[in-house]
Amino acid sequence: MQERFTGRGLRADSLPKVSLILALLAFTLGWIPTYGVPLGIFLGGASVVFSSIGLTYDPSSSERRFLVVALVLGVVSVMLKFIPGLNVL
């Protein structure tokens, strides 16, 4: 029986998709001058949090690869924002 979405919070099966979308947005929008640093840090951090929750909540998930890719991409996008000279404007 499939559980019904009540509008409160995220379901466990939506965490991999949400974290991967946030990681991709953080990585791509993070290159925009001036706004890229806060976007990259915020979206990348949110991706790391959501993917960590997803990996902790259901480690044997069939969509585990999405969570791992989102975690790695989120960490990379956050770390790229702290390299001096990379985001000059």
Automatic annotation (TrEMBL):
Domain of life (superkingdom): Bacteria
Alphabetical UniProt keywords: Membrane, Transmembrane, Transmembrane helix
Transmembrane segments: 12-32, 66-83
Protein name according to UniProt: Uncharacterized protein
Taxonomic source organism: Ferrithrix thermotolerans DSM 19514
